[in-house]
Automatic annotation (TrEMBL):
Pathway: Carbohydrate metabolism; glyoxylate cycle; (S)-malate from isocitrate: step 2/2
Domain Malate synthase C-terminal, residue spans: 583-673
GO biological process, one term: glyoxylate cycle
Named cofactor requirement(s): Mg(2+)
SUPFAM superfamilies membership: Malate synthase G
GO molecular function annotation: magnesium ion binding; malate synthase activity
Protein name according to UniProt: Malate synthase G
Keywords: Acyltransferase, Cytoplasm, Glyoxylate bypass, Magnesium, Metal-binding, Oxidation, Transferase, Tricarboxylic acid cycle
Length: 715
């Protein structure tokens, strides 16, 4: 039985109440009674409206289902479908043109295109790694991955591979920072004279790209350059193993990498109760106060990891200057759907977790607002809001933060909102969603994974969907990705807010990422998600090659390339001439991904995992990828493409494979041969009950089953 304390009519779990009163509130200037009174008001006034928004989602879905069922067997009538969606209010009227009025936005959001990391806030080491991923070694990223076309060799340092890394990096310097009449590969000396960087006494072709140095100007320890807003540091050290063999003494090239990072309280964590929420909030508190640490073991050594300091230099004229040493941190709150038992309202019902997150994460961010040299230099708090359905739900989030700011004594619009464009009702109404938050919006981002899951669920009754790889090739995805950028530019986000793209999900395949992810800046995206600090360093290279603002200017001048009609093109299977082998392989691939993710979520509370697929390619899995796989099987089950018995056979077969893939994990609990554990049952629920889950989300089942396991483990 959870011990609780009464706080202004709220029944708050004792560990959460103690965390707020004893750790989060002190130092903010917010009185204890004012906090709890404010939170109680938010929960009791906005909770019923939250519930009505969810009910409206369900009513719209029922109407869409009925429309498709009534026309089953008939050719799809696009015009009639669009008119129907307009009639029921799913498609909102598009209003006049406008531009956002967001103010006090940090340069990392408005002015510096670059990579963005997303990490689970419940893992302090990952959170620190992400914050410190503002800077990364290009040499290490090239040497330690397959970026050069092959994996690094086992054993000690390979001089031949090291030489290839150095040569590759010098080509990058020639491209980004050309020297008049000289290649960086031939350079023997870098020095500063009369405020200019000279390379073997020759100037940069663009001298303004030299912005600082450290050490003596005649033989600097470091040189700071900038290109398209991103910094590059040349590190010189003739005593270093690399620098000692380099004719210029260049020991490393460090790139400004993860310009921003999302500390995630949502898709990549498994927070189901007060214990979990306190862990998430405590790590966010450490980041906002700047005192978060984590004990790390690496190569047999143990050390304490902390937040990196800012980097100091002499400007070209010799005056002191500095650049940020950490990524600008955003926090992703939970969406509107889920409740959490950490707090009960006056009727004894679980409160909406999104309302709880809004108040508590903003309270914690006050610690940053009150210190110099912290996260935001502009005095803003950045909250990413996921899984909102349409303009009215965005407007609800705005009202929530109005009330949060009033309760905490913050100026209006201190909290900036990131709108995840990952539900279809948001995609087709994106301009009106942005309008609803025009004073707060600092970020829009496509999320292909959740977006696909919602696409399948919304059109569940329309017919069987294509195989997953073919869904990605359908016309709707191009329309979705293009319209997001087009609308963002039309609404004035350029140089005011981020226009983002989704995750690279294969963290071990960096050569492929280097080849493919450059399409994101080329598409006009000012940020795109990466799965690791190393990937951030490599993705940063794309922003040196592509001037995103020039791309955006060109796109803006050309007007819209995509329209809502393209997004409403449902990616159903056209011919359905699948062999039985193709069907079973698709189901097994989905089942393996679900099981590999769910078994760690339920048994170990791990919300984001690198899960090997059926070909043993490691994929970053979170609830969004799980949502696609579960909805896809549910769709095929519903339309008779595959039987329940066939799916169960696939689940059991894949459970044995997942068991084998995790054999070296001492904390892993095998699912076979009994197939009766809570994790396996959760995976079955996601598939066999997937059609009736709200919006096809995985959270209700995962939370229920994780709580079941936690109760069982307590006896």
């Amino acid at each position: 039985m959870t011990e609780r304390h009464d706080k202004s009519g709220l029944q708050v779990a004792s560990e959460l109440a103690a965390f707020i009163d004893e750790r989060a509130l002190p130092g903010t200037g917010v009185e204890t009674e004012a906090f709890w009174t404010g939170l109680s008001k938010i929960i009791h006034e906005l909770g019923p409206e939250n519930r009505e928004l969810l009910d409206r989602r369900q009513r719209l879905q029922e109407q869409i289902d009925a429309w498709h069922i009534e026309r089953r067997g008939q050719p799809h009538d696009h015009n009639a479908y669009k008119a129907f969606l307009t009639d029921i209010g799913y498609l909102a009227p598009e209003g006049p043109d406008f531009e956002i009025a967001t103010s006090n936005v940090d340069p990392e959001i408005a002015l510096i295109p670059g990579p963005q990391l997303v990490v689970p806030i419940t893992n302090a080491r990952y959170a620190l790694n992400a914050a410190n991923a503002r800077w990364g070694s290009l040499y290490d990223a090239l040497y330690g991955t397959d970026a050069l076309g092959s994996a690094p060799p086992a054993g000690g340092y390979d001089k031949g591979r090291g030489a290839r890394v150095v040569a590759w990096a010098r080509v990058f310097l020639d491209d980004a920072f050309p020297v008049a009449g000289l290649s960086h590969a031939d350079a023997r000396r870098y020095h500063v004279r009369d405020g200019a960087l000279l390379v073997d006494d020759l100037p940069l072709m663009q001298p303004e790209k030299f912005v600082g140095y450290r050490g003596h100007p005649k033989a600097p320890d470091a040189v700071l350059l900038v290109n398209h807003g991103l910094h590059v540091e040349l590190v010189f050290d003739r005593t270093h193993p690399i620098g000692s063999r380099d004719q210029a003494g260049l020991a490393d090239i460090r790139l400004e990498s993860a310009v921003s990072a999302i500390m995630d309280c949502e898709d990549s964590v498994a927070c189901v109760d007060a214990e979990d929420k306190v862990l998430a909030y405590a790590n966010w508190l450490g980041l906002m106060r700047g005192d978060l640490t984590a004990e790390v073991s690496k190569g047999g050594d143990r050390f304490t990891r902390a937040l990196s300091p800012d980097l100091t230099y002499a400007a070209p004229d010799g005056s002191p200057s500095s650049v940020k040493g950490r990524a600008l941190m955003l926090v992703r709150n939970v969406g509107h759907l889920m409740t959490n038992p950490a707090i009960l309202d006056r009727d004894g019902e679980e409160v909406f977790e999104g309302l709880m997150d809004a108040m508590i994460t903003t309270l914690i961010a006050i610690h940053d607002l009150q210190r110099d040299g912290g996260n935001s230099v502009e005095g803003s708090v950045y909250v990413v809001k996921p899984k909102m359905h349409g303009p009215e739900e965005v407007a609800f989030a705005v009202r929530t933060f109005d009330m949060v700011e009033d309760a905490l004594g913050l100026p209006r619009n201190t909290v900036k909102i990131g709108i995840m464009d990952e539900e279809r009702r948001t995609s087709v109404n994106l301009k009106e969603c942005i309008r609803a938050a025009k004073h707060r919006v600092a970020f829009i981002n496509t999320g292909f994974l959740d977006r696909t899951g919602d696409e399948i669920h919304t059109s569940m009754e329309a017919g069987p969907f294509s195989r997953k790889d073919f869904i990605k090739r359908k016309a709707w995805i191009g329309a979705y990705e293009n319209l997001n950028v087009d609308i963002g530019l039309e609404c004035g986000l350029m140089r005011k807010a981020q226009i983002g793209k989704g995750m690279w999900a294969m963290p071990d395949m960096m050569a492929a990422m280097l080849d493919q992810k450059i399409e994101h800046p080329r598409a006009g995206a000012s940020c795109a998600w990466v799965p690791s600090p190393t990937a951030a360093t490599l993705h940063a290279l794309h922003y040196h090659k592509v001037d995103v603002f020039k791309v955006q200017e060109k796109l803006k001048a050309g007007g819209r390339r995509a329209h809502v009609d393209g997004i409403l093109d449902i990616p159903l299977a056209t011919f359905r001439r699948w062999t039985s082998e193709q069907i079973i392989r698709e189901v097994e691939n989905n089942a393996q991904g679900i099981l590999g993710y769910v078994v760690r979520w339920i048994d170990q509370g791990v919300g984001c995992s690198k899960v090997p697929d059926v070909n043993d390619v490691g994929l970053m899995e979170d609830r969004a990828t799980c949502r696609i796989s579960a909805q896809h099987i549910a769709n095929w089950l519903h339309h008779g493409v595959v039987s329940q018995d066939q799916v169960m056979v696939a689940l059991r077969k894949m459970a044995e494979i997942v068991d084998a893939q995790n054999a070296d994990d001492p904390h892993y609990r095998p699912m076979a041969p009994g197939f009766d554990g809570i994790a396996f049952q959760a995976a079955c629920d996601l598939v066999f009950k997937g059609r009736v889950q709200p919006s096809g989300y995985t959270e209700p089942i995962l939370h229920q089953r994780r709580l079941e396991l936690k109760r069982k483990s307590l006896g």
